[in-house]
């Protein structure tokens, strides 16, 4: 895992809420269409996840096509929701966003109040996560990038992915398997560690 180095230019410390005393933390899971957001929420949630998946129909042909990720026949039309307890004092409430451009208008409401985010990346279609990263940066929501390990996806050094995504050195990049609970939990813990680092930097500023 590459957690990066501290770089105050990447996320303004004055825009990072402190975690001290937090009981419930809102985290969003974002990324392009078909990168594994619903799978991740379902894999890691300690409660039956709330999903809004619908079967894709012929009406979506040419709109919801998913080049490079064949076999997907459902899509999230609103959001996914799950919960995981990190310890007795910290619970993460997970909100997965829809990936298609026609549902992006829902993102602002989902981002509201979020302390941090996980950006899921499919290396077969790196470009589909650009919009999610841009929106998080515009809203100054701290995030980590999690590279989802699809079986047939090409593998690249994390340094190359950092360059391709134009990420600051402080933004953590991790690998994960969205189907595996422990792997997803590790990605969320990387986000929590990053948020604590930002909070500590704010306190000492």
Average per-residue pLDDT, rounded, comes to 80
Rg computed from alpha carbons, rounded to a whole number of angstroms: 16 Å
- Note the total helix count: 5
Distance between the termini: 28 Å
Percentage of residues assigned to helices: 25-40%
Describe the global form: globular
Instruction: Give the neighbour order of strands across the main sheet.
Output: 4-5-1-6-7-8
- Overall strand count: 8
What would you say about this model in short?
This protein is α/β, with parallel strands linked by helices. 26% of the residues lie in helices and 21% in strands.
Explain how this protein is built.
This protein has 205 residues and is an alpha/beta fold. 26% of the residues lie in helices and 21% in strands. It contains five helices and eight strands. It has helices spanning 37-44, 107-111, 130-139, 158-164, 181-204, and strands spanning 24-30, 53-55, 74-76, 80-87, 90-96, 116-121, 143-148, 173-176. It has a six-stranded mixed β-sheet, with helices on both faces. Strands 2-3 form a two-stranded antiparallel ribbon. A hairpin with a 2-residue loop joins strand 4 (80-87) and strand 5. Helix 1 (37-44) packs across helix 5. The longest helix is centred in the C-terminal third of the chain and has 24 residues, at 181-204. The chain is globular, with a radius of gyration of 16 Å. Residues 1-18 and 56-61 have low confidence and may be disordered.
